[in-house]
Amino acid sequence: MLKIMLVDDEENVLNAYRRNIRGQFVMKLFNDPINALNSLKDDKEYSVVVSDFNMPGMKGLEFLKKFHEINPDTVKILLTGYADLQLVINAINEGYIFRFLTKPCESENLIGAIKQGINQFKLITAEKELLEKTLRGSVKVLIDILSVSNPAVFNRASLMRDLAKRIIKRLSITETWEIDIAILLSQIGCVGIPSEIVEKRIKGIPLDAKEEEIYYSHAEIGSMLLKNIPRLEKISQAISLQFKSSEVIDSAEHNFIESNVLFIAKLLRLLNDFFWIAERGIDHEKVINYLNEESYLYDALILGALEAEIKGAKQGYITLPKQLNELKEGMILAENLSDSNNYLLLPKGTVLSDIYIHKLITVSQVRQLPQQVKVFVKA
């Protein structure tokens, strides 16, 4: 059942709430707005919050604004006197107050306002759920298109995402759905360029100037594919910048773009270059050395986290040969893994996950793979 919160510094008002609306709603009462905000650390799921305006320590408007920052979906109702009307009107215009009631307020008016607030909350959450389902469906379709049209590119995007998760963890950054989806969809523009150019790039075969221009255009193609999908606008921005240097990304011409979007773009630039070099069969630690030689292209913190991750990954490990059915999550490939046609499945340095292991076993049923694979395992 949906909960409501009522906040007033006067105990007699809270007691009146208990008497008059008990049984109508599941409710929590607070006589201190600061305590009410602190309680949201443990439970912030409220459909409606009702607050008095004039409270010591924190005014009702400030309280509801802070509440809105923590949970924007909760519907906010303010109880106020006539002297405060202009302030309340301003707050409503800012968009975080649903309704205000003047004091004294009859219990039936309060109950009616709360019921309307609950209905508004249901509308907000239903619309949000529909949008999220639509978004998930759209993203899944795009990822499926990429995986079917060019499995090698999809494989690279998956490797990029796995490495990004470890970089983000080292940077103590909270992983967001935008980062995850941006990386998975970063290569979606490859569906719009000739497959032979993409294949040459992945195999490390040099491209001529015209082919390079065409290949790098996949950033803009991908951005155009995504920019009109609701809630993917920021991801579209990051993908369009993925081949720019860190300095260009941070330049004044991009001041209008949010900092988290710029971070994703810089992360993508580094991941793109890392795997472009690694896919040529170069050891991951040597890849880091190459990247450091052109460190001006990258964000120093992200490059440092990548270097720490790559160099720290093998500490305390020994190299052993393993059968495919002996592979375990967390093992690290000590060599490139290719099929009998020399098609690269996973590059050296890949940290194996259950998904990768399942994929290798499945591929081995239709393609010839090495009998044994050299991996790094914990000593």
TrEMBL record:
PROSITE patterns per UniProt? RESPONSE_REGULATORY
Where's the Response regulatory domain? 3-118
Is Phosphoprotein a UniProt keyword of this protein?
yes
Among the GO biological process terms of this entry, one is: phosphorelay signal transduction system
A Pfam family it matches:
Response_reg
Residues bearing 4-aspartylphosphate are 52
Q: Which UniProt keywords apply?
A: Phosphoprotein
- Domain of life here? Bacteria
Q: Where are the transmembrane segments?
A: none
For this protein, the record's Gene3D superfamilies field holds:
3.40.50.2300, Hypothetical protein af1432
Q: InterPro entries annotated for this entry?
A: Bact_response_regulator, CheY-like_superfamily, Sig_transdc_resp-reg_receiver
What the entry lists under SUPFAM superfamilies is as follows: CheY-like
Recorded protein name is Response regulator
